[in-house]
Batch of 2 targets.
Target 1
Amino acid sequence: MTKKITINFTVNGDRETREAIVGQTLLKFIREELNLKGTKEGCEIGECGACTVLLDGKPVNSCLVLAVELDGKELTTIEGLSKNGELDKLQQAFIDHAAFQCGYCTPGMIMASKALLQRKPNPTDQDINEALSGNLCRCGAYQEIREAIKASTKK
Amino acid sequence: MADLKYVGTSVKRRDGVDKVTGAAEFIDDRFLGPLLYVKMKKSTVAHGKIKKLDISKAQAHPGVKVVLTGKDYPNKIGLYLVDRDFVAMEKVRFFGEPVAIVAAVSERAAAEAVELIEVEYEELPGVFDPREGMKPGSPLVHENLEEYERVPIFYPVPGTNISNHFKLRKGDVEKGFAEADLIVERDFQLPQMQHVPIETHKAAAHWTPGGKLTVWSTAQSPNVVRQLLAKTFEMPMQNIRIISSYIGGGFGGKAGASLEGLVIPVAMKFPGYVVKIVFNREEDMQGTFTRQGLYSHLKTGVRKDGRITALEYKMIWDGGAYTEYGVNIVRAAGYTSTGAYDIPNVKTDSYCVYTNNSIGGPVRGFGMCEMQWGIERQMEEIAKELKMDPLELRLINGMKDGSTTAAGQVVHNVAFDKCLKTVADKIGWGKTEGKFRGKGISGLVKCPAQPSNASSSAIIRINEDGSAHVMVGATEMGQGMLTAISQIAAEGLNIPIEKIDIKVPDTDFTPYEWQSVGSRITYTCGNSVKMAAADAMGQIYKVAANLLGVPVEDLTFDGKMVYSTKDSNIKATIREVADSCKKCTGEGIAGPIIGRGSFIPSNMTNLDPETGQGNPGMFYCFGATAAEVEVDPETGVITVLQLASSLDVGKAVNPQLCHVQLHGGTIMGLSTALYEEVKFDKGVMLNRNFTDYKISSIDNTPHIDSFLIETPEEKGPYGVRGIGEQPMIGVAPAIANAVCNALDIDVNTFPLTPERVWQAIKAKR
């Protein structure tokens, strides 16, 4: 009943071959098949940004992408950001500026910020506001998020 | 106060690395298989008798383990008024109420089976407006209200939809009106809103044939969940284990018991399975409690010199179909009904009314945002009519040391005036900046709404190397409990934060905590941790005194060594003391050191049932918000130019996290001021997602200036007051006051949508 397709992809730098269920979202695939629990589900319909990951370097809501679309692509999740136990500058800046409270939107927020920084290494407030307008943070750490992103470009 | 080493410093969040690396485990990350997935069949009418409920096709669907209906759930549940069935029995009372649940081996099978359940309703006349619902002859939402078990401080009116009528009588309100030169009367209203934490409500249950129940839950208050489940499932508490995790936002929405009970009977039928339920966004919007809508009427008497002489406040709350906390919100709003102002004569009637709208409940502020919306808008209108500066009017009437609240409680260590002046100065109060620009200010106050015996406890285990485990029952939902409580423990134990481990609760291991609500944890849990640290230190000194042969009072501890203040050569390492201490002869002195702290407030009392007088507040936290806005008169669109917030925090345990909390609360307040309104059409919630129900996003969030004022609270640990909810309270009225001042209009319903503002502008023309 559940049809599966073999897909080849890279996840956080490692090449993988897996079976993906047809119709399964990338979000469910990441959490349940790859067992990477850092990516969060907030709405399942592309409205909150909590499940943001990078697909070939571009930010996507993984709840709106099918797992089979991962075939041939490069996936980066929050787990792929720190290297050898060392935090990415952006992650450290989020801690230093207390740019989160509950932390549930944080993985998505950081991935969307990472994508922005790759596109614009020195973003303005306006750039940040535009890039992150689809990532909701109910705790309201927006002011600190802007500060953290800008600070991360300075060190 | 003596110099503090750890309290008062902006140490980085203890959950920081976990949360930025994706390693932070939220509850859904801990549901480990074999799993059963539970989905609900939800009512499609707001009020109706269940005429037919056929589960046979669902039962037969491949993958389905069981389908349960109301009769499979033994007893009703409720925190203050026991009025709710987990799954509807005989009739449904709100749109989206569960009428059956399906448990299956996959989420898909469960969802498919739900569609195969056949339900027929006989629709009943509904109650959708509490003002109508409280009238005699209205259809009844609960026919047997008088039979429900309740906590005796709540007063339902049998034969009506009124689940609680809170009365407050202070002074002589008629005399107060007679003394007034001016009487101002106004109606205010505000709609329901939703908490919308980005993590929705989730729970799972596991049962062993031996009778042990384990529940994983997003609940803010695991001990209360355990207490309610023990009662409704008639189980001894030691057989129920509630496991918390990082919580992805609470805001009051995850207080009390919510969906845990739904999965337990399934778990009991299938031992060994982890039976889970995860609300999707739509279910979270309609199936968890909303902030209660409020219709209010204020009548205020004031003298020419600005002194308010009397207040009559009537509040009619839309309690929704069931009342978990609603009756207590109505009570809290009642006993605080003068807001931050000292008014000698007060008459308040606050009613909680059942309707067929979604269940009402607490949201950040616990009635204070709703109630003080009226107070603070009314202050503005009074000032306008007196032709007085609204700031001046607030300073004249604002509470000071020795003032009395509506309940007659005397307040101490109050710096409300400083809070007001700080934010007014920040936005350049008194200077007009342009034609369509206006400035507004609002005061605010809140005490934790809790029973007088709401307590906290803590255990501190000192390890052999002098490091410590701090065990508390408070939850971490973003407010920074882990960090602030670690700092309080570090201060008491005089060891660095890095030597302290603290975890989120698991009721089998962590000691009792009433609830993580009401901005109370840093104060109550903090007090218990301070006591536990002092207890542990007392033991360390006693053991060291025995070991070193000197009196306890001669000893001091620097974090590594215990030594004599008279002769620093007389000393012992913490390891020598804490690692099962023995004399040089080998004789044992003391086993492991375990500190214990148990806190209950001693300054609260019951309230008189007729007058509402007494001491309901453990502490009162005052603050103020000020805003400058620009309004486009053609479109009604508001642009917030300046936003400033101040709070008298008592003592900021962690200044950085306090500022973040002020910003976050202000943003949530701004979101409710401008956007948030749950819309119902005869009980059917219309906006059930983030597209139809907008909350603040980064692109519409202005810069916020925050100020921490520190007037120590005598009984708080190191002078602390709780501050989690307070930053939200003054935002909507400050924005509204600024908008009204910008255009000389009068808006008394929020949110201030462009349409509503434009209508007000049009009405004035």
Target 2
Amino acid sequence: MIVRRTAAWLDERFGSNALLHAALKKIYPDHWSFYLGEFALYFFMVLVATGVWLTFAFDASSENAYVSVLALADRHHPIGYVIRQIHHWAAVCFVAAILVHMGRIFFTGAFRRPRELNWMVGLCMLALASFTGFTGYSLPNDGLSGTGLRIAYSVALSIPLIGRWAANVFVGGDDFPGAQLTTHLYTLHVYFLPVAIGALLGLHLFLVIYQKHTQFVPDPEHVVGRRFWPDYALRTLAALGATLAVLALLATFFEINPVADYGPYRTWIVMNGAVPDWYAAFLEGALRLGPSTELRIAGHPIPPVFWPGLVLPTVTFLFLLLWPIIEARLTGDRAAHDVLEPPSRVPLRVGVGAALIFDGLLLTIAAGDDQTAATLHVRLDTLVWAYRILLFAGPLLVGVLAARIAAEMRARVPAGGAPPPDVVMLVRNDRGGYDEEEPQAG
Amino acid sequence: MLIFALPVLLAAVLGATPSGAELYAQKCASCHGAQQWGSPDGPSLRRVGLADVDFYLSTGRMPAAVPWIEVEHRDERAGQQLPLAQIRALEAYLAPVVAGGPALPQVVAGRNADRGRELYAVNCQQCHGVGGTGGSIGRADWAPALHAATIDEVADAVRAGPGEMPRFGEQQFSQSELDDLAGYVLLMQSGQPGSGIPSSSTGPVPEGALGYLAIVVLIAFVFGFWRRESGGRSG
């Protein structure tokens, strides 16, 4: 009744019912893997909601930041403990959900024409989400994150020509940690980056709705799926509920980022086993495996951290950003596609994806090489060299193997794209028995 | 050798502790020398201090079962763990020889956990890690985990500085500071909240792995209802 009246009231003033009707009856293709992006969306919503609360409790000055977080990290805090726990867990899961979602898009070919731009928007959100996560991880000014910031500062210093200037502007002084470091991080983490993510998120969703979602149903003419209301809306609400439940469980049973144990940051203490949150750990791993020779170009020194710390992530990012164009060029397939492919359809893509995943995983594991060496009782030197060899040999081996497997899987599926349907038509024959009707290709 | 070994064997059969001299001759002298001046296989024990002797014996690093393990892998408890009575007998025998180095420390678990945590963070965490997980130092050595260390072993190590570890004398740690540090190590081992061992997480990367597990749970959830509704068809 109230809903009906409100709708009528709004419609009389804005003529909104036509739009509402179109929105509610819009068809969305359905598949379990299409919920991955929604999980990311819900984690982001939780991050904003809990983040707003945390801004009231956090003191964004270098001197008091640690103490204000320490109060929240205490289990006896009436509400702050659980909100901070949920916030940090949601951040960890947010980036994970984005990456898994991106993997789905990549391996099913959802990024192909006409959706290249939305792939790029999504990739920018991944970078922004990682950066937001890193700035948030750095805010408490504890021993662990201070070490991470010190490394980031050194990497920033290594940028040719502008490095020193840029790094010092960021920390707000000639030395680390500058007076304005926490304030700058806070501004980035609380205003600039989340707003940028929000803007891109709006564009991302608009493009999904405007260009229509891809589907597995091999029908390029029609969108096959469920109406938004009530079918899809209730399902996505269930996904939201599950997301909240999982976060609540994590926050209740697993203590994250115990800043009290890390202690406040002191510039003269660097501890063993210091690693960033998982999404930045591959950079730490790259720094640990990277070369240690300093190049000189026209008299200017290029510090060794420049290559693994900045060149590697930039090149990887650009490669992924341009992948829709690269793939179209390599395969010669420039047609528009609304129908998704099973991952095995393009062995090249499978090989490249598997190689990237292998190296990402290896660099992430390499971030903890000191712990691994101590646990396995191997010399750190031996481990570093093993990782270095694997870093180049592994992706080749894994990539070729994955591409081969994909090629063989593709060979088994009859040409025409669609796997044989589960529903079999039986036709009665002259003798009174039944024959299977041949499935129609396409 | 046999002449020395015979009384030890006899004593073992009879259940009595062999004397320190007998134990030294049997377990230590082949590397450290009959007069404790050392040999090409082992360092001199003269003036190393009783804390050092106690550290190596009570943690089971010495007597070495396989000498190269002891030399290469300092945190490996690969030696022959002697019974306490034999350790005490050896120490009593060696006391006059090793005198001049760090003395055997006395330690009780202190109650000031905040000071213990602070001392640990400033002096120990760099190598032994948050929560005493241990970690690599340099390219080829590592600091051991502290999960199994007793407070006496901690005190020995602090005063004697075995291997790569620095020596912390009375100037660095007063007796009461040593007590608080030892108390904090115990608290860390207990895994109580705020004690140093994160109760259910061992750092950001395992936290990330748990985050992925959460995503898998969510996928299982939607896969469950999607499969039931669509009869498992992938189209």
